[in-house]
């Protein structure tokens, strides 16, 4: 008889949030696969739990190599408990490869539900929660990050991201550029911990605030794109709005940025519309008969 893989949620900050079943599963497991064995030790001490199972590390660096070993233990009948540093395994943490392997080998997988930074941040954000999309961590490279943001710039669902403290200022600035500086957002820091903070406001203001540095574990919640009246976002209308601002004295770059923010569009979309209009006018001029 094959064993069972148990995905166990762990506290995202306050150890008092540990689900009651977690302690029982920690004591019962034959094998405990932990993202960080030192954090696991601190957690078991806080919960007053004595583990008897074999403890192995299971993190991003060894996930591929260790998965077959854990599958073999499961096929031999072991009860394997998978825990990450915080929250649910597989959610931007190790776990997906092991679950997929268990499904492939017809091994039972169950879960001990626990705290979730995604849902906690959503609930605290003050933004719509009826439809949302979890986007995980954005790419580290600026170009790839902008590209990923542009993919969802018109998504009307609330967006949720994880981010590292040393990149949060660049990320918020990129979000303001792509989504528009007026798009509402919430930066949730150190959830359930002593210095928990939820900073809400337009992306432009949050990006400015983050320049001074932000510490701790961070989850960002961003308002989805609003519904726009039919025809408002045609390229012709975008070009017209840019032209009006230019005639009022704004530089083209500033006018494009302002129109993009008003429309909730990436600046690139407005820029492309302006360039296309300029090229079309030039071609029309060249095609005009002489004389």
Structure characterization notes:
This protein is an alpha/beta fold and 291 residues long. Helix content is 44%, strand content 18%. The chain contains eleven helices and ten strands. It starts with a strand and ends with a helix.
Descriptive labels:
11 helices, 291 residues, elongated, five-stranded parallel beta sheet
The neighbouring-strand order within the major sheet is: 3-2-4-1-5
Gyration radius (Cα, Å) is 25 Å
* Average of per-residue pLDDT values: 91
Return residue spans where pLDDT drops below 50 for at least 5 consecutive residues: none
Inertia-based shape: elongated
Main sheet makeup: 5 strands, parallel
Give the topology, please.
Layout lengths: L3 E5 L11 H9 L2 E4 L2 H11 L6 E4 L5 H13 L3 E5 L12 H9 L3 E5 L4 H9 L6 E6 L4 H10 L6 E6 L4 H12 L4 E6 L7 E6 H8 L7 E5 L12 H13 L4 H12 L3 H21 L4
Parallel strand pairs: 1-4, 1-5, 2-3, 2-4, 6-7
Antiparallel strand pairs: 7-10, 8-9, 8-10
Summarize, please:
This protein is of the alpha/beta class and 291 residues long. It has eleven helices and ten strands.
């Amino acid at each position: 008889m094959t064993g069972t893989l148990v995905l166990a949620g762990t506290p995202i900050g306050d150890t008092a949030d540990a689900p009651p079943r977690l302690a029982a599963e920690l004591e019962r497991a034959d094998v405990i696969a932990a993202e960080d064995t030192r954090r696991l030790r601190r957690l078991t001490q806080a919960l007053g739990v004595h583990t008897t199972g074999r403890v192995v590390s299971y993190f991003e660096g060894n996930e591929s190599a260790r998965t077959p070993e854990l599958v073999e233990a499961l096929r031999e009948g072991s009860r394997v408990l998978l825990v990450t540093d915080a929250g649910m395994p597989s959610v931007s943490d190790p776990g997906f490869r092991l679950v997929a392997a268990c499904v492939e080998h017809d091994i039972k997988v169950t879960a001990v539900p626990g705290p979730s930074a995604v849902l906690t941040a959503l609930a605290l954000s003050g933004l719509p929660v009826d439809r949302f999309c979890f986007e995980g961590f954005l790419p580290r490279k600026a170009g790839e990050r902008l590209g990923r943001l542009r993919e969802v710039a018109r998504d009307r669902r609330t967006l949720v991201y994880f981010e590292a403290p040393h990149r949060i200022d660049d990320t918020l600035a990129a979000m303001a550029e792509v989504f528009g500086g007026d798009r509402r957002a919430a930066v949730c820091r150190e959830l359930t911990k002593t210095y928990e903070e939820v900073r809400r406001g337009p992306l432009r203001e949050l990006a400015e605030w983050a320049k001074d540095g932000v510490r701790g574990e961070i989850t960002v919640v961003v308002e989805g794109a609003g519904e726009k009246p039919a025809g408002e976002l045609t390229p012709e209308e975008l070009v017209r709005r840019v032209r009006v601002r230019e005639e009022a004295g704004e530089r083209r770059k500033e006018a494009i940025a302002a129109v993009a923010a008003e429309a909730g569009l990436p600046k690139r979309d407005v820029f492309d519309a302006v360039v296309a209009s300029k090229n079309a006018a030039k071609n029309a001029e060249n095609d005009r008969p002489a004389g």
